[in-house]
């Protein structure tokens, strides 16, 4: 039995006209005069939301990083466990990107808890059409479907094996343990239906292992 675990966005900010020195350090292109910043209490949901923003506005993800140790050990109350910077040509464009981020985080992307235990959770999310950010990370074509699968390290390894055997999918990116937040997982690609089958198999494998963690 699982329950949904949504992230929150502790901070959402816009810099309408970035200082030239800061823009150079961030690596902005000449047309990218505005940036939006946001933090998320769950990093993988933050990455998913950043990718969604690239589909809904003319922005690029110029920075996206997980913070070590997770949100429980954040550097401040607004830090969460992830921060992203989205760059675009105008304040209106980056604000539109943030609107997309908020919708994704509040209503679509979520972790699932094992038996209601928030300390034991996993991510089995299907992206029907990847944006510029995750497609580049996965090395697939923009618009390709992805299964974004994350869990604690042993559960993730068992789950990825099950997912790859259950559907006609390819493992594009393996997040070897430990990540900054001590999870593991991967990005898989295939048809949307194949990605969904892979995500379902991943979920079931995680739940099966949680029910009998020492049975081999």
UniProtKB/TrEMBL annotation:
<dbReference type="InterPro" id="IPR037233">
    <property type="entry name" value="CcmK-like_sf"/>
</dbReference>
<dbReference type="InterPro" id="IPR000249">
    <property type="entry name" value="BMC_dom"/>
</dbReference>
<feature type="domain" description="BMC circularly permuted">
    <location>
        <begin position="1"/>
        <end position="110"/>
    </location>
</feature>
<dbReference type="GO" id="GO:0005198">
    <property type="term" value="F:structural molecule activity"/>
</dbReference>
<keyword id="KW-1283">Bacterial microcompartment</keyword>
<dbReference type="InterPro" id="IPR009193">
    <property type="entry name" value="EutL_PduB"/>
</dbReference>
<dbReference type="InterPro" id="IPR030983">
    <property type="entry name" value="EutL"/>
</dbReference>
<dbReference type="GO" id="GO:0031469">
    <property type="term" value="C:bacterial microcompartment"/>
</dbReference>
<feature type="domain" description="BMC circularly permuted">
    <location>
        <begin position="112"/>
        <end position="216"/>
    </location>
</feature>
<dbReference type="Pfam" id="PF00936">
    <property type="entry name" value="BMC"/>
</dbReference>
<dbReference type="InterPro" id="IPR044870">
    <property type="entry name" value="BMC_CP"/>
</dbReference>
<protein>
    <submittedName>
        <fullName>Ethanolamine utilization protein EutL</fullName>
    </submittedName>
</protein>
């Amino acid at each position: 039995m699982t329950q949904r675990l949504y992230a929150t966005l502790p901070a959402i900010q816009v810099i309408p006209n970035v200082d030239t020195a800061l823009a150079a350090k961030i690596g902005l292109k000449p047309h990218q005069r505005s940036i939006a910043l946001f933090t998320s209490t769950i990093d993988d949901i933050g990455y998913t939301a950043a990718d969604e923003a690239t589909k809904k506005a003319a922005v690029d993800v110029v920075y996206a990083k997980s913070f070590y140790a997770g949100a429980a050990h954040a550097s401040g109350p607004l830090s969460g466990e992830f921060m992203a910077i989205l760059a675009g040509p105008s304040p209106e464009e980056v604000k539109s990107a943030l609107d997309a981020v908020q919708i994704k985080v509040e209503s679509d992307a979520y972790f699932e808890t094992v038996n209601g235990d928030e300390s034991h959770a996993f991510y089995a999310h299907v992206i029907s059409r990847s944006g510029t950010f995750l497609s580049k990370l996965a090395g697939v074509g923009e618009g390709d479907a992805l299964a974004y699968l994350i869990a604690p390290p042993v559960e993730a390894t068992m789950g990825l094996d099950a997912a790859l055997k259950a559907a006609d999918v390819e493992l594009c990116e393996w997040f070897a343990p430990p990540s900054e937040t001590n999870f593991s997982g991967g990005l898989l690609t295939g048809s949307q239906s194949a990605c969904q089958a892979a995500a379902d198999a991943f979920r079931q494998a995680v739940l099966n292992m949680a029910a009998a963690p020492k049975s081999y």
